[in-house]
Amino acid sequence: MKRILYILIAAITLGSLFSCEPSEDRNSLPEMTLKSEDLNFTAVVNGNNLVVKNMTPDVIPYWSYTDSKGNELGHSNLNETTIAMPFAGTYTVNFTAFARGGSVTSSKTVTVLKNDSTLFSDPRWQMLTNGELGKTWKINMVTESPFAFVGPGYINTTLEGDWAWFPGSINDVSWSGIENKDWGEVTFDLKGGYNVKIVQTSLDTGSTAQTTSVGTYSFQLTSQAKNDRIIMNGGLQMLHTNAYYKETMSGFTFSDVRLIELKANSLRYALIRNDGVQVVMNLVPKTSN
C-alpha cells in the first residue's frame, strides 16, 4: 500500500502530455471577412497519396476528409501535408480557413483509383487488425489487472522510461472500485477502409446495458513506437471502464489514445487522469466460444 501511495502522490505534479491546439493564435491575424470563393487551396491525388496545400494568406488552415459514406477519416492543421489513401474510392476534402472575422469552409471531391496494401506492411497493422478479417479486443478481466499506471516519461514496455506500476491481477485492484463485468469489445479491420466497431457496456454500476457504435479510426505509427496513437473519428471512444471516469480533467479524451504496448496478444493504451497520471487500459484478443 505504501508503494501505491508513493506512486500516486508523486504523480500529482505531472502535466498533460498532449495538445491539439493550433500553432498560431487566430486573434493575432489581420481582421478579414472570408467567403468560400476567396479560398485558394489544392487537393490532388497522386497514386495513393492525397496532397493538400493551403494558398490562402493570413488564415489558420484546418483539413478534414471523409469517405463516400460521410465517415470522417482524419484531420490536420498543417499548411501543406501528404495523406496516405490506401483504399480505392471517392473522398471529400474539406478545407476550413480561420481568421479574426470568423471561419469559412470549402470542399473538393477526389478519387483514388486502386487499393495499395503495401501501406499496411508494418507488422503493427496486422497485430492490431488482422487485416481484412478483423480483430476483436476485450478488456482483460481474467489474467491480469484491467488497467495500470505509468508516468509522463514512460514510452512503452520495450523502451520504458520513468516509473510504471502494472498490478499483477484483477485481485490487486479491489481498492479502485472498478466493477468486474464484461465491458464490451472493440473490433478493428481493414476491409475496404479503416473500420471500427465498439460495443461499450454502461459505466453505471450494476448495469450490463450495451451500446454499439461503428465508424472509422486512424492508426498513427512512429519510430520505435514512441508515440503510436489510435485516433477515433467522429466522436467515437475507445473501450474503457468506469474507473476514474468521473474524476478526469477537462479535455480528457477516450478518442485519442497513446499506445504503451501492442503485441499479438496484448493491447495497452494510455489515458490522462486529472492528476497527470497516465491510466493504461489493458486489452487482450477475444477468443472464440
User: End-to-end span in angstroms?
Assistant: 38 Å
Major beta sheet summary: 8 strands, antiparallel, barrel
Shape: globular
Radius of gyration: 21 Å
The number of strands is 17
User: Helicity, in percent?
Assistant: under 10%
The stretches of 5 or more residues where confidence is low (pLDDT under 50) are 1-23
Q: How many alpha or pi helices? A: 2
| Helix-and-strand structural type | mainly beta
Strand order of the largest sheet: 8-11-12-13-14-15-16-17
Number of domains: 2
* Average pLDDT rating: 85
Instruction: Please provide the ordered H/E string of secondary-structure elements.
Output: HEEEEEEEHEEEEEEEEEE
- Strand fraction equals 35-45%
Quaternary state of this entry equals single chain
How would you describe what is shown here?
The protein is built from two helices and 17 strands. A hairpin with a 5-residue loop joins strand 16 and strand 17. Mean pLDDT is 85; it is low at 1-23. 6% of the residues lie in helices and 39% in strands. The strands form three sheets. It has an eight-stranded antiparallel beta barrel. It has a four-stranded antiparallel beta sheet with strand order 4-3-6-7, with no helix packed on it. Strands 1-2-5 form a three-stranded antiparallel beta sheet, with no helix packed on it. It folds into two domains: 2-17 and 122-285, no CATH class; 31-119, Immunoglobulin-like, CATH 2.60.40.10. With 289 residues, it is mainly β. The protein is globular and about 60 Å long.
Question: What are the SSEs and their pairings?
Answer:
Layout: H1 2-10, E1 41-46, E2 49-54, E3 60-66, E4 72-76, E5 80-84, E6 89-99, E7 102-112, H2 123-129, E8 135-139, E9 147-150, E10 164-165, E11 184-189, E12 195-201, E13 210-220, E14 229-232, E15 256-263, E16 266-272, E17 278-285
Antiparallel strand pairs: 1-2, 2-5, 3-4, 3-6, 6-7, 8-11, 8-17, 9-10, 9-17, 11-12, 12-13, 13-14, 14-15, 15-16, 16-17
